Amino acid sequence: MIIAAAVIALGAVAGMHADGTERGGRWREMAWPFPRDGWPAGRAFRCVAGGCDGAELYIRAKRGFCNCDTGVADDDEVDRVTDIDLISPRFAPVAPGHAVDFAAMQGRIRHYDLDMPDGTRHAAAGLALSRRCDLLVAVAQGAGEANAVQRAALVFLETEEMKQWMAATLDGR
Length: 173
Known about the structure:
By secondary structure, this protein is an alpha+beta fold. It has one domain: Protein Transport Mog1p, Chain A, CATH 3.40.1000. The protein has five helices and eight strands; from the N terminus they run αβββααβββββαα. Strand 5 and strand 6 form a beta hairpin. Helix 1 crosses helix 4. The longest helix is centred in the first third of the chain and has 13 residues.
């Protein structure tokens, strides 16, 4: 688990140019594409350049939804909470997930194959992170290779703007 977290962290650092710009992609915010449910809408982004063209990222907080003692404990919880089913009800994990430490939170990440409504197949990475009793979930999906989509999304989520937004959202601001 420690090795997996280190690989992700190194991938995020390697995704930056010396001037601090993103090599993992350029993301533009778009409207939250999903119908209302029991949780507040989150933020949605589309990658418009940088090797992840067309990939999309959806992120939102689910305050008070996490087990305060164990956090995100297993892959079944990742499957259940990450909103992957909002993208396509026909999703299948491709491998066991793994534990991650990300933006001062702990959780799990897992890869999926998605059968999209238009008949295409997309790769996705679901990320579920806990902070105390709160949950932050993110799903990155696109027609590209799962590791590339994940890497580009994680580089973007590591930006100072996104880390500040995540902290403020979890604090209810």
